[in-house]
Amino acid sequence: xxxxxxxxxxxxxxxxxxxxxxxxxxxxxxxxxxxxxxxxxxxxxxxxxxxxxxxxxxxxxxxxxxxxxxxxxxxxxxxxxxxxxxxxxxxxxxxxxxxxxxxxxxxxxxxxxxxxxxxxxxxxxxxxxxxxxxxxxxxxxxxxxxxxxxxxxxxxxxxxxxxxxxxxxxxxxxxxxxxxxxxxxxxxxxxxxxxxxxxxxxxxxxxxxxxxxxxxxxxxxxxxxxxxxxxxxxxxxxxxxxxxxxxxxxxxxxxxxxxxxxxxxxxxxxxxxxxxxxxxxxxxxxxxxxxxxxxxxxxxxxxxxxxxxxxxxxxxxxxxxxxxxxxxxxxxxxxxxxxxxxxxxxxxxxxxxxxxxxxxxxxxxxxxxxxxxxxxxxxxxxxxxxxxxxxxxxxxx
Length: 397
Fold this sequence. Notes:
Elements: E1 2-11, H1 15-26, E2 31-34, E3 47-48, H2 53-59, H3 62-68, E4 70-79, E5 85-89, E6 101-103, H4 106-119, E7 123-125, E8 129-136, E9 139-146, E10 152-162, H5 171-175, E11 177-179, E12 186-193, E13 204-211, E14 214-220, E15 225-232, H6 234-238, H7 246-254, H8 258-264, E16 268-269, E17 274-276, E18 281-283, E19 287-288, E20 291-293, E21 299-300, H9 308-329, H10 338-360, H11 362-369, H12 374-383
Parallel strand pairs: 1-2, 1-10, 2-7, 4-13, 10-20
Antiparallel strand pairs: 3-6, 4-5, 4-6, 8-9, 9-10, 11-18, 12-15, 12-16, 12-17, 13-14, 14-15, 18-21, 19-20
């Protein structure tokens, strides 16, 4: 087996992996990235908040993203039970955040980030599947991988960045992956063409529809394509009839969401209905000696609030800075990454608090019974990703 030496080996070419690799290569690190799939490929998680702008600027991609993808102006909430509605535009946020976000087809967006990493000097190997991380005295030292023709290849590195997403190569082995109690939802989703959109004079809203089994998203993408999904409770998923295929179960789910049926009335489905179970999980640690777990590899919370993509980008940017300093100091022990991990844990706590506020009813009260309050401004700021250092845990109590 051939073995090649690098400063950093990144596992996974999604947003977290590509951003971290790109920024490290630009800083002078010798970086290899292993991605098992050929891009572009389908993926959900298409909402990109305004707070992502600094990361896009750092990569030189802000103008390209603004030109290619749907302008997003905020969230619009509808309660299917009462019919009440409330728009929460980004411009309402406490800090006057950049008023534009984006809705990005992940196939095109992820490919854009990966190609930027390649252009900045990352050695991109795709397709190439990482099979194992090699440890010596508890310190990650290398990666064993396999090429499409079955050949085995090895990589030595001072730091391994696991960005393998929900598969989380290191999560089960050394990081203690476990579900998050009380957030046991399943997502059913597909892409449609021709769905009714909710827009203003600048761009489109991400619609959040509250219904008896959880909530639904409707996210307009470029052209006439939309992403629509239902995030359903474990109790509703258990009500799926024996032998019932996903498509009829999805349609039956929508029967309890009249607003969603109105959105889809003029539309036709483009893709098969897919499902992701076990949406929320965490790893006991995101970093160790010689390794970090980026994005979904280290944990994922409910798709509400829609900040997962922002978390992947910003977490990767901060990881790149931490790794750059560790390499410069000649010390890649876990202690070098403690501040990075603490930041990530704080974001996960705030994300969980907002998700629990939705499921517990506090968010509905804030939206429809206290309009114009400071709480609504704080919500807008949080949903824009503009208040990453504000504590919202009280909302879930």
